[in-house]
Structures are given as structure tokens and as C-alpha cells.
TrEMBL record:
Provides the (R)-glutamate required for cell wall biosynthesis. Its EC number is 5.1.1.3. The keyword Kinase does not apply. InterPro entries: Asp/Glu/hydantoin_racemase (IPR015942), Asp/Glu_race (IPR001920), Asp/Glu_racemase_AS_1 (IPR018187), Asp/Glu_racemase_AS_2 (IPR033134), Glu_race (IPR004391). Substrate binds at residues 10-11, 42-43, 74-75, 184-185. Belongs to the aspartate/glutamate racemases family. The active site is at 73 (proton donor/acceptor), 183 (proton donor/acceptor). It holds the Pfam family Asp_Glu_race. This is Glutamate racemase. The keyword Ribonucleoprotein does not apply.
Length: 267
């Protein structure tokens, strides 16, 4: 039994999409989510910069005494996870491994497309992880540099749809039956992805499998909070508090959500 919170980190608002699934799957667990909005986007930074920024957020979460850490960011999972696992004794859970497992299970024609940030795509982390599960799966990778900043800008549906359609254009005629939302910002505009794609494409949000995997790890390591615990959820950002709160309130459907500004650089 362990009543400490679960820590989650992302470059920005995208982590809310993982927080939502984790809270749903583990309703008695407290969570602490930090979005590094001041440094967003991570998707076009160097490996060294991303490792350094991820380290700051990890240190912040450890200062809050979290029992495990979910890197709720594909970009940070793709390039910073092995380093964090070496540096920290807490269990660290990434999103790419779970997303790959879900995609390998979902595809029937063995043809998967992955849309993600340039860093995630250039790392080929998804291709590697999907093919590790099934070498016969064809993986088409597409970098979409405009999409995470688009989500963060909280534009209207029509604007989002137009940019999603343009971004997915290179996937035309690729014959995939499964599309992985390989950036945690994308599930926030999942409706626009659904509208931009034919109805028979399965859209994989890795967060579902991340929540299941987190549950499994906590069961294995006896990390569940005491039964009947009332969960507390805390939100921190290195960026603008009111836009972070606005996104959190709308996506988690919780008008009482409040966030706190933090500076993680000097931890
Ligand atoms: N949400 C992040 C991800 O899952 C990245 C967005 C960004 O900062 O570029 O990759």
C-alpha cells in the first residue's frame, strides 16, 4: 500500500490526455502533473535539451514525493527515458511502448501509420517497438510539426480540422488501417482526426494502454493507495497558468481545476 501520488510530466498541455485516462482507470490514486509549457514544443529540440528539460520535471516530481513517474510525452519517452531510468530509482513508465503494443494488437492488415513530432519520428522509436512486437507490420512514420503547437493555441474546430487534414495529406494511399496518435497533445483534438480520416481507420491513443500498464505495475509492486482513499489532483506549469487551467478545465471537464506556476530550472 502506498498513498503517495503518481507523477506525470509533459512538455505542455498534452499530459492532460494521459492524466484523464489514468484518473479513470485508477480513481483512488492521487496525481501530480507538470506541464513544461515555458519550453514547449520539445518536438524540434536536440536530444540533449530534451533530456535536460525532462530531468528538471522529474526532479520537480521527486520533490513532491511521487511513487512512480509517467513520462506523458512521446518525445521525451523516445529520447530521454533510458537516461531517466538510470538516474532515478522510481519506476518510470513511457508512452511509446504502450502505444506500440496497442497498435500491434489493433492492426488487421499489418499496416500502421504513426503521426508524431519530428524528434519522435526521427528516433524511429515507434517503428522499433511495433516491429519488436511483430516484425511483419509495415510502419509508416509521419512528422507533423504543426500539430502540438496548434493544440496548445486552442484554436476552433474548423481551424484544427484544416491543419490536421493538411498534416495527414502525405498518408494518402498508404493503405494503413491503424493510426497511432504518437504525441499526447493529439488526443485533445481526436474529433478532428476522426473527421479527417476514413471511418474504417482505428485511431490508437496510447494513453489507454499506459493507464492499464500503470495499473499492472502498481499491482505487481503493491503500490495501490489504501482502499477508499480520496484522490487529490495537482497541476503545475512552467508557463502561463490561465491557459493551462483553461485547457485542463475543458479537457478534464472540471471547472474547479486550478494550477500553480513553478520554475523547475533551479531544482
Ligand atoms: N506532447 C508531446 C509528445 O507527446 C510533445 C509536444 C511537443 O512539445 O512538441 O510528443
Amino acid at each position: 500500500m502506498d498513498n503517495r501520488p503518481i507523477g506525470l510530466l509533459d512538455s505542455g498541455d498534452g499530459g492532460f490526455s494521459v492524466v484523464k485516462k489514468v484518473i479513470k482507470k485508477l480513481p483512488e490514486e492521487s496525481t501530480i502533473f507538470i506541464g513544461d509549457n515555458a519550453n514547449m514544443p520539445y518536438g524540434n529540440k536536440s536530444k540533449e535539451e530534451i533530456i535536460n528539460l525532462t530531468r528538471h520535471s522529474v526532479k520537480f516530481l521527486l520533490s513532491k514525493d511521487v511513487k512512480l513517474i509517467i513520462i506523458a510525452c512521446n518525445t521525451a519517452t523516445a529520447v530521454a527515458m533510458p537516461t531517466m531510468q538510470k538516474e532515478v530509482k522510481q519506476q518510470i513508465i513511457g508512452v511509446v511502448q504502450s502505444g506500440s503494443l496497442a497498435a500491434a494488437r489493433a492492426t488487421e492488415n499489418k499496416n500502421v501509420a504513426v503521426v508524431a513530432t519530428p524528434v519522435t519520428i526521427n528516433s524511429h522509436a515507434y517503428q522499433r517497438e511495433i516491429n519488436y512486437r511483430d516484425p511483419k507490420i509495415k510502419v509508416t512514420e509521419l512528422a507533423a510539426p504543426k500539430l502540438a503547437p496548434l493544440v496548445e493555441a486552442m484554436e476552433d474546430y474548423e481551424t484544427n480540422l484544416k491543419v490536421v487534414k493538411e498534416s495527414l495529406e502525405p498518408l494518402k494511399n498508404k493503405n494503413f488501417d491503424t493510426l497511432v496518435l504518437g504525441c499526447t497533445h493529439y488526443p485533445i483534438i481526436q474529433k478532428e482526426f476522426e473527421a479527417a480520416l476514413p471511418d474504417d481507420i482505428s485511431i490508437v491513443d496510447p494513453a489507454d494502454q499506459v493507464a492499464q500498464y500503470t495499473f499492472n505495475v502498481m499491482q505487481r509492486d503493491n503500490l495501490f493507495a489504501a482502499s477508499g482513499s480520496v484522490a487529490k489532483h495537482e497541476y503545475y506549469t512552467t508557463g502561463n497558468v490561465s491557459s493551462f487551467e483553461k485547457m485542463g478545465r475543458s479537457f478534464l471537464d472540471d471547472d474547479s481545476l486550478t494550477a500553480i506556476h513553478v520554475n523547475t530550472e533551479n531544482l
